[in-house]
Design brief:
With about 375 residues, this protein is of the alpha+beta class. The chain folds into 2 domains: about 150 residues, Creatine Amidinohydrolase, Chain A, domain 1, CATH 3.40.350; about 220 residues, Creatine Amidinohydrolase, CATH 3.90.230.10. Helix content is about 30%, strand content about 20%. A 6-stranded mixed beta sheet has the order 4-3-2-1-5-6, with helices on both faces. Strands 7, 8, 9, 10 and 18 form a 5-stranded mixed beta sheet that branches. It has a 5-stranded antiparallel beta sheet with strand order 12-11-13-16-17, with helices on both faces. A hairpin with a 3-residue loop joins strand 14 and strand 15. The chain is globular. The termini are far apart.
């Protein structure tokens, strides 16, 4: 923040608020529009944080975050205490959702009280264009802080690492079970249900709460992306899955084949596996992500697949509505691997007429190297 000449950051993306405070920013944040909640982070490290959230969750947010200065704006939910309060606004309907103008007015008051002005960082990568016009009415020089916040969030707290590791292990246990019980004629929907049930039971069997939710991209046959038909002999089966624990999503994938693979399918998977191993061996603290990308690409090209040109070979994972976060292992990446990062390393290829191929592991960057968070065989599994 000091390098960018910012007096403060104003966080407005729900995941960023959770990262900064450990507290739920309120049900209004589910609409994913700016102004449902704000957290002000001063550049002065000795200055306390402040927050603005919907009135329904203001007390619980203050308790969970430990932030003393929590201000609230009215949202649509009507609550009260008994006996009924008489100091509330009279004959004053609440907004249908919440008022961006109201939360911005509170934000301006807060910034003025704290003496925060000039250049202030805002997550413009999150703020919709329709909402930003109202931000521009404030006498503040807004600076895009999207990358600053992404940079901060890329280094995980131990509690985040624990959630991501547990999610990855449950997902891997579910995949192992699915491949053990697989039967010809199963559809992608059948396999997804079996995988989810097994991942859930893996958590319950350890006395842990089951994942909040699950996602899966399972494809059967020659498309690689579409679910396909019931599995038949020779079909390639791509399984890309994740479990979500407290908002943190794992990401891992494997490829299988029903019976004997076609020679071309086996050769392609072998090449992808060798490229993956090349990338994994390149992962160490301080290594530029662009260098890892180029080594994986060179491995594929040197094996004769010089038309292969995937845009990235992995990404950060964390608390996100999707499973992919910055940084990306790409040719134009500016980031380097740092201890505390959690990334998914992957070598996918979707070949219409043959099938979808993918090898993907979730990695924790440590001071001395990387740790695979849920180890599994990377061979093409014959079912």
């Amino acid at each position: 923040m000091q390098n960018e000449g910012l007096s403060a950051l104003v966080l407005c993306q729900p995941e960023s608020i959770v990262y900064a405070t450990g507290a739920f920013p309120g049900v209004a944040s589910f609409w994913r529009r700016a102004g449902a909640a704000f957290v002000v982070v001063p550049a002065d490290a000795s200055a306390p944080l402040a927050a603005i959230v919907g009135d329904l969750q203001a007390s619980s947010f203050a308790a969970a975050s430990g932030i003393a200065d929590v201000r609230s704006h009215r949202i649509w939910v009507e609550t009260d205490n008994f006996p009924l309060r008489t100091d509330k606004p009279r004959r004053s309907p609440r907004p249908a959702q919440y008022s961006l103008g109201g939360s911005l007015a509170l934000l301006l008051d807060l910034l003025r009280e704290r003496g925060l002005g000039g250049r202030i960082g805002l997550e413009m990568g999150f703020v919709p264009a329709a909402d930003f016009a109202q931000f521009q009415t404030l006498p503040i020089q807004w600076v895009d802080a999207t990358r600053i916040v992404e940079r901060l969030r890329s280094i995980k707290h131990p509690e985040e690492i624990e959630r991501l590791g547990r999610a990855a292990r449950h997902a891997a246990a579910g995949l192992s079970h699915l491949m053990d019980v697989f039967a010809p004629g199963m559809t992608a929907a059948d396999m997804s249900r079996i995988w989810q049930d097994a991942a859930r039971q893996d958590a319950i069997g350890q006395g842990l709460p089951p994942p909040q939710s699950f996602w899966s991209y399972i494809a059967v046959g020659g498309d690689g992306f579409a679910p396909g038909e019931a599995a038949a002999a020779g079909d390639i089966i791509k399984m890309d899955v994740g479990c979500v624990i407290d908002g943190y999503s794992s990401d891992g994938a494997r490829t299988a084949v029903l019976g004997q693979p076609a020679p071309a399918a086996q050769a392609i998977h072998d090449a992808l596996q060798r490229a993956f191993e090349t990338g994994l061996a390149s992962c160490s603290p301080g290594r530029p992500l662009a260098e890892i990308y180029r080594r994986i690409s060179a491995s594929m090209w040197d094996q004769g697949y010089d038309t292969y040109g995937r845009g990235h070979f992995g990404h950060g994972v964390g608390s996100s509505i999707w499973s992919e976060e910055w940084p990306f292992i790409s040719d134009d990446a500016e980031a380097v691997l740092e201890p505390g990062m959690v990334l998914a390393l992957e070598t996918p290829w979707y070949i219409d007429g043959l099938g979808g191929f993918i090898i993907e592991d979730q990695l924790l960057v440590t001071p001395s190297g990387v740790e695979v968070m849920a180890p599994m065989s990377r061979e093409l599994r014959r079912l």
